[in-house]
Write the structure tokens for this entry.
Amino acid sequence: MTASWRYLAAKLCNMRELTFMNRRTFAALISGLFAALSLSAAPALAKAKAPVTPPPVQMNSVVDVDPSHDPDNVLVLDLSNGGRVLIRLMPEWAPVHVERIKTLTKQGFYNGVIFHRVIEGFMAQTGDPTGTGTSGSTLPDLKAEFNKLPHVRGTVSMARTDQPDTANSQFFIVFYPRFALDNRYTNFGRVISGMDVADTIERGEPPASPTKVVQASLLSEGKPKPAYVAPAPVAPAILAPQPAPAPIAAPVAPKPKAKRKP
């Protein structure tokens, strides 16, 4: 309150023509005016801000193709066709699935396992030691880590049954883009070298002469490439009369197991 305001208030309160009641009423009005001016000078109360929802994290679809970078996340598949495939594992896409692949690889689980389901124009699937597509490792099935990253040529993704949380050890390499698989199968890596080798994997469900994973390793382990052994030529069969086989009872078909597949 400025001095001029105080002076004016005092002069008005001391005016003889005002009665005692009027003075009290006027004093109350002046006090109210002082209070209003004081409140107007005070800072306004801060308004509560609505919580800000952070934007969804965008996964980077760019893959480092230099195998010398982070070799502990480069999966090496040495195949029976003499070729080598390098796969960049992407923990930021699917950390639990990448850890499972690395665990099984270090255990030697994939060594000797065939590509049991290979479809031209689609994909090559492996990771079942029985070669039937119905089995996996002794480790528990994994909870899905689906993502929107595209299934393009060279994508490596996990196979499963019709139930989402059933990926275990089987995975597949995509030959040509299949965007219908996006956000439905766990995409965890991409081929960075040797896709031409993957293209030569024997086709079939199962193939007549399946291509095999001779050795699976992590690049950081520094395992040398196994010596390539060419398949022996098949000798022509000598036809000779054979006795008729004795009749046998028809086998009882076992209850089919659910296959893991894309």
Observations:
- The chain is about 20% helix and 15% strand.
